[in-house]
Amino acid sequence: MSGPRTTTLWRPTGPEELELVRELEWRAWPPRLPDQPIFYPVLNEEYAIKIARDWNVPHSGVGYVTRFEVESGFLERYPVRQAGGRTILELWVPAEELAEFNAHIVGTIEVVHEFR
Question: What pTM does this model have?
Fold first, then answer.
């Protein structure tokens, strides 16, 4: 018997957020800060790499790309947003829904790229 159908998402992140993910045993994203009303996972690895390399590295010296699986049925509530070019796709998860979003992560969050 197989588990639920999942969708792979990526999240570019800096060292502070990654440390909080580590503290959550690689199973959840930390609550958003007051100036972060939206959690933005992205739908393709190339876009996540671009953000981690071109934004996180200059901002904090290091950028990471994480990959994780979320139950596909749950994600249907979030329309895919095009944030620029046709491959710049992301989901906008309101901060107040992040705990529920985390409950639908299947497996663990893993670091797949590191840029310095």
Answer: 0.94
